[in-house]
Amino acid sequence: MNRFKRLNNDIAVSPQLLVEDIKEAALQGFGHIINNRPDGEGSNQPSGSVIEAAAKAEGLGYTAIPVRPGGIDENAIVAMADILKKADKPILAYCFSGTRSAFLWALASAAIGEADADVIFAEAANAGYDLSPIMPLVDSLSASAQSK
C-alpha cells in the first residue's frame, strides 16, 4: 500500500517516514522532503537528522518545518510557502499522520495564491483530508492572495 497521498502533481503527504521510505520516495520521483514533525514527539520516530541524511543520500532536498499538533503559526505558513515555490517537485511532506502536513500545505497554498480555496479543499478531500477545521483561514488567505 502506498502511504504517500497525492494532493496534486506537485505535492504528496505521508505519515511518519522511515529511512526505507526515502528510497521509495526517490524511486517515485520526489525531489524534496519536508518534515513537519518535531523531533521527540513519539518514542519510536526517527530523528529529523536521520531522515535528512537518508534524503540527501538519495539526492533529495530536505527541509524541516516542525509543527506541534494545533501549532501551525504564521512562521510555519511562510516557511512552507517558500519551499512550495522553490523546492524541486514533486514534494513529499510528512508528520505523524499526514494531517498537519496537509493543513500546512493548504494554508501556504492559499497564502501564495497557488490555487483558490475550492481547489485546495477538493485536492485535500480527494487525498482523504478534511480541511473543515481550517476552512475560514484558508478562505481568508486565498481571498487576500487573489486581491493582490
UniProtKB/TrEMBL annotation:
Pfam families: BLH_phosphatase (PF04273). Residues 4-110 form the Beta-lactamase hydrolase-like protein phosphatase-like domain. Gene3D superfamilies: Protein tyrosine phosphatase superfamily. GO terms for molecular function: hydrolase activity. It comes from the Bacteria. InterPro entries: BLH_phosphatase-like (IPR005939), Prot-tyrosine_phosphatase-like (IPR029021). This is Uncharacterized protein (TIGR01244 family). It comes from Zymomonas mobilis. The lineage of its organism: Bacteria, Pseudomonadati, Pseudomonadota, Alphaproteobacteria, Sphingomonadales.
